[in-house]
Amino acid sequence: MAVGLSPELFRNLDLRVLAVQRTVAGRWWNYHHVISPFSRLWLVLEGRGVVRHHGEEFDLKPGQIHLVPPFTPHDCFCSKRLDHYYIHFVSRTPTGVDLFSMLGTIFQLPASAEALRQFQRLEALYPQRKLACFDPMQAEYRRQSQAAERADEATPPVDAFEGRGLLSLLLAPFLHRAQKLPGIHSRVTEQFRAVQEFIHKNMAQNILLGDLARVAKLNPTYFSDRFQNLVGLRPLAYLTQRRIERAQYLLLTSNDSVKTIAAEVGFHDAAYFTRAFTRHCGCSPSGYRASHSH
Question: What is the mean predicted confidence (pLDDT) over 238-253?
Fold first, then answer.
């Protein structure tokens, strides 16, 4: 049973299907240290595969449905044949943080009796949401995510409504077993959801401590102290972390230059952005992109 999940986590949740398709993988389905900015669902129909993440090895076998949360380093391979459906999706809260980045849950479950029909219907609703390239290291693969998000705006409203409902049904068994992780984003949401939302909507702008304090309706000094006591970071340090996380997403899903991405996430000095990114991620923005695109 879900523990500590508040209604606010699910209110106005932005659920989007980025890709959905049935495919038969062979020995070519062999990828190591994949990191994607979206979540994955696999429904296994026939054959076998293996996926490793979170320090565990999971046997992908018929009748199982498997979840990989966003930004989860994972290895996957197939020794012979794996007939399966996949869905790539995002589940963002109004704060811009993905739901499955804030939750801990079981990663593999027996598929429900309706799961296959739900995958089939999603594929029928989104016939163009198929991967042009299966190799997560290729630029084509990166571009798929942003192209799908843009296409989502043109999806007929009733189809989008049905698609969100079907995806919700597939995710519900995982959410029933979920718990809120004691991470930074969850702690911010507990008392400063409006601050998170302000950062998400205005990230490209020059944001000062006073701006965040006004959103929280607190004196800047008191706000900063209270924020640090709750979260463990000063507000502007948290702002930098959110900007770096957004930059990671853009580096993995677009071909924009580092300078363009820096400006889009609120760093108007590209050199400073590179230093901040390197400090947080252990490598430069160009190195981060290169390590996932060869």
Answer: 92
